[in-house]
Amino acid sequence: MTSPIPAPHSQPPAPRSHLAQVFAQYPIEVMRGEGVWLYARDGRKFLDFYGGHAVAGLGYGHPRWVAALDRQARQMSFQTNALPMSVREHAAARLVKFSGLTLDTVFFINSGAEANENALKLAFKITGRTKAVALEQGWHGRTAAAAAVTWGALEKWYGFPRRPFDVAFTPRDKPAAVDQAIDRDTAAVIVEPVQGVGGAFDVGKPMLEALRRRCDETGALLIFDEVQCGMGRTGAPFGAGYYGVTPDMLTTAKALGNGFPVSALMLSRRVAGQIKYDDMGTTFGGGPLACAAVEAVIEAIESESLLANVRQVSAYLSAHCRVGPVTGVQGAGFLLGLKTSRPAKEVQGALMEKGILAGTSGDPRVLRLLPAYIMNEGHVDQLCDALARIPA
Length: 392
Ligand SMILES: Cc1ncc(COP(=O)(O)O)c(C=O)c1O
Known about the structure:
This protein is an alpha/beta fold. It has 14 helices and 16 strands.
C-alpha cells in the first residue's frame, strides 16, 4: 500500500506561521483588553460583543479575578487531584451553591468537550446501553464522543473512522418527536438549553420538559450541555434553573474561569452514587489556579449583581436593536441571536468597521452576541446606533 504522506524531498516550503491553519481569523490583532473594550495593535479600539466566544463573562482584567490568580500563583500554582486542596473543595462547594441545583457532586476538567466526553461515558457505563440522542443544530465539541453528538460533524469534519456509539438526532423544536427518538436503548440525551453555535436558539421549556419526561420513562440519562449558556449567561446561574428542568448531569465551561481553562461536570446524587475510583481522571483538571478562577468568577457575579444586570441589559437590547438589518431577536440573557435580513457575516464586517465586534453562528442569518456580564445600556446604545447605520 502506498503512503499518502509525501516523501521528505517533496515537502512543501516551511509555513509563514508555525500555528496550524485551522481557524478563519478576524483582521484584528488584539494587544490589550479592559472591561468590555479591546485595543488592537494598529491603534483601533473595539466594543466587544463577542467575549472571546462566550468566555470573558467578567470582561477583561477584572480586578477580583486578577487578584485571585495572582494570589494563588504565589501560594501554590499546581497540585494533582491526588493531593487534597481546600481551594478545590471551596470551588466545588461554591459552584454547587451558586447553581441552586441538586447536582451536588463536581468533577473539574479542562474544556467543554472533555466535560461532555466524561458525561457521555458515565451514561454508557451506568446504563449499559448503546445509543445517544442529541438535537439537530446542537454543538458539543471536537473529541470523539462529543463530536459524535454534534449536528453535522460527521458530514463536515468528524475525521474518526466511525462514531463510538449509535446516535440519533431529533428536531430542536418538536417536543412530540422525542418519544420516537428516545427508547430503551438510549443511554444519554444531550441538549444545550440555549443552543450557541446553532444560532443562540432557545430550545425552550416544553422541549426540555419533554426530554426530561421521556428520559424518566425510558431510563436514559439527561445531560444539559451548559458549556456556553451556563454560568450566568442566561441571566440565571444555569439554564436548568432558568427553565425549571433538572438534568441528571450538567456540563459547563467558558465563563466558568473567565479565560482560565476550566470546565465542570456536575452530577445528581443518583449518578454520583454509581461512580467509583478510576471511572474518570485528569492531570490538569481541578488545579488550584483554575479553582481560584472559578471562585473569583462566582464571587464577582454575586457581589456585583451581574445576573440582574444581564437580565436588564438583555431586555433593553432586545427592545432597541431591531434597526438596520436586524429583523428579530432570539436566545436568552447575553446569548442572543440577531436575525438579519442580509448574511450575518456582512453585518458582522460592517460592525467591525464601526468598532464593534460581534459573532456569527451556524445559521447564516443570525449574528450572535455573547458580551461580558458587565455590559451596560450605554454600550448597547452604541451597538444599536451602529446597526441603524447599516443598510437593511
Ligand atoms: C455548547 C458547547 N458545548 C461544548 C463546546 C466545546 O467546548 P471546548 O471548545 O471548550 O471543548 C462548545 C464550544 O463552543 C459549546 O459551545
